[in-house]
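Final report, Chapter 2: Outcomes

The project's central promise was a pipeline that accepts a single protein chain and returns its three-dimensional structure in a standardized token representation, suitable for archiving and comparison. That pipeline is now operational. To close this chapter, we reproduce one record exactly as it appears in the project archive, with the input sequence first and the structure output second.
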Amino acid sequence: MSPAPVKQAARDAVRILPPAEGYERWASSYDATPNPLLALEERELVPLLPPVARKRVLDLCCGTGRWLRILAAHLPALLVGVDASAAMLGIANRGFRRLVRADCLELPFADGSFDFVICSFAVGHLAELGRFARECTRILKPNGDLFVTDLHPDAYARGWRTGFRDSQGAAEIRTVSHPWRDSVRLFSSIGLGCAAMHEFRFGDAERKIFFQAGKNGLFSQAGRIPAVLLGRFWRIN
């Protein structure tokens, strides 16, 4: 799951959908249009991935399987994708078989099941961030790694939202913004240490995507603020 910016001025004409409905509707066209936020996240995050060869890996809120495809190339011993959307999993299922439909706040895995968990552009849809953190702590092995990305709070404050357009019109998927300092304190209280927080900004690598979408003028404006926030955590004990 991931966001695409929606201009604040156009939001009055946009229907706001709950996440379950929004992603079911978006799934069939989700991979059709290049998304600069996804490109930026991949460009910056891939070099930061911990070694996952022969490790047990979970892609939490895996959507159509973008990170599953990336992680599979690193040869983990086990690679599992979880998502609440049947439509999204239907797309991911074309390349992967170990997929589970489940709520990320109530995961069907034993304690200490995974060495590495990634959750990409999903926590902005969660009001109960504490429940999410507790589940991640529970399923991680001691010293296991958790990577969480989301739309940067600065971008959210300027009106960027998770949105798409299809034959039914423009839609926005309901999101909330979690102040990152508060999130770090919350995660720490639940047993997740923070190794680092990273802010990613658009660069020349993403300029082509803006240009192809006819939004070259928007690139300069968007590049002035951090677009993606990555939190790197580990299970303390």
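Archive annotation: The first helix runs from residue 19 to 26.
This record, like all others produced under the grant, will remain available to the consortium after the project formally closes.
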